[in-house]
Amino acid sequence: MSAHRWALWTxxxxxxxxxxxxxxxxxxxxxxxxxxxxxxxERTPQRIVSLLPSLAETVCELGQxxxxxxxxxxTNWPAAVKALPRVGGGLDPNIEQIVALxxxxxxxxxxxxxxxxxRALGVKVVALEPKTHADVQRVMMKLGQLLEVPDAARVWxxxxxxxxxxxxxxxxxxxxxxxxxxxNPGPYAAGEGxxxxxxxxxxxxxxxxxxxxxxxxxxxxxxxxxxxxxLIMVGQRSVDGMNQRPGWMAMRAMHGGHLCVxxxxxxxxxxxxxxxxxxxxxxxxxxxxxxxPAVARAGGRP
Length: 302
Prior knowledge:
Blueprint: H1 3-22, E1 29-32, E2 38-41, E3 48-50, H2 53-61, E4 68-71, H3 95-100, E5 105-108, H4 115-120, E6 125-127, H5 133-146, H6 152-168, E7 178-184, E8 188-189, H7 195-202, E9 206-207, H8 221-227, E10 231-235, H9 236-239, H10 252-255, E11 259-262, H11 264-271, H12 277-291, H13 293-297
Helix pairs in contact: 6-12, 11-12
């Protein structure tokens, strides 16, 4: 190679090197959250604060519980999270405490009002809010991508298969049981369009609250009396005073004893759209198999 060509070659390499130096470093990964906001990360987040129980539970189900450095006041599963700092609730988080934990990312619901405040302080936020079975799957895949967990799809398939197994365990006689599921006092119900309603449908039950009313509508108690469900599912926190509601003791579910009252721990499992959805399906299946009117007519044999 001539001296002239060598000089040109050296100059070309130098220009390439300078061009590469001038370009900003590309983010290692980018996540578009449920707000439609693209959040870029230079490296996989190692320090995570979660402001929604179902998101913390999903992180742990993916085998990444050790990355959590803070959770909201309601997160209580699995046991490993109970020792973590509490940073308030999703709607009233302690911003200063969150920042002090130096998180690489804060996971929260889209309904949380803290996103902009945290972003202004230089904290990355990913907002994800599962409401249906498809949402639970999508959120699991998103978190799998964010945390670089390669088998997130396998984890979801196991959950989905367990819901199907719960449905297959039920006797044919309980199919079509008309169910009212009360999420909390108000009363707020789980409608057909909620993940709870979808689980009930997969179990073969009929929800008295149509999808048109929304996933978790607040109902007039008289609506439930008129609907006259065969079976009521309710958490222990909500059952107090239920028999004092006007007209309720006349409903077939109440006077016939077709009522399942879930203790607090089971109620948490049922109302969180996350990896414990399969356990929630088993709890609802157990209720149907033991308390549905068809079972009672058969002498209590599921």
